[in-house]
């Protein structure tokens, strides 16, 4: 009888951990998808240094705003996002944050959101909110890493 109880308990614990992990993945997929959707809805919004609203965004303002609308609070600057949130990843998934710096040894000064298919969405100082390729000749050499929130 005790063996059956222990077996049933082990099965229950195992299944609950599987469902909990699945729920966390589903939640993450939701807010990544939602954040991308919000960012895409702001395509063409002009660049504004310090901007955090649809009247004008800077790079971290767009990311903070988009994730905020999806229910995730992020810090204000690219550097604070890089140093305090998420975990580093090598293989990009939609919704991951991509960080850029003037050189590999300096702190991040720019952030974009990976949207899949080799593309990222960001607030560009020259073009406003745009979608561009991660292989972009200007940004690729400045890339210092990605984080998953």
TrEMBL record:
Pfam families: NLPC_P60. This is NlpC/P60 domain-containing protein. Residues 29-149 form the NlpC/P60 domain. Keywords: Hydrolase, Protease, Signal, Thiol protease. It comes from the Bacteria. Residues 1-20 form the signal peptide. SUPFAM superfamilies: Cysteine proteinases. InterPro entries: NLP_P60_dom, Papain-like_cys_pep_sf, Peptidase_C40. The keyword tRNA processing does not apply. PROSITE patterns: NLPC_P60. Belongs to the peptidase C40 family.
């Amino acid at each position: 009888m005790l063996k059956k109880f222990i077996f049933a308990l082990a099965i229950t614990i195992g299944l609950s951990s599987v469902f909990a992990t699945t729920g966390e993945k589903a939640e993450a997929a939701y807010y990544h998808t939602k954040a991308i959707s919000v960012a895409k809805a702001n395509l063409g919004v002009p660049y504004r240094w310090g901007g955090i609203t649809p009247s004008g965004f800077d790079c971290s303002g767009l990311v903070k705003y988009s994730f905020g609308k999806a229910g995730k609070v992020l810090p204000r600057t690219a550097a604070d996002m890089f140093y305090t949130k998420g975990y580093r990843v090598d293989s990009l998934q939609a919704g991951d944050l991509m960080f850029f710096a003037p050189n590999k040894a300096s702190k991040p000064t720019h952030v974009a959101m990976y949207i899949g298919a080799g593309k990222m969405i960001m607030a560009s100082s020259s073009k406003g909110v745009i979608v561009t390729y991660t292989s972009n000749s200007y940004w690729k050499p400045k890339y210092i890493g990605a984080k998953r929130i």
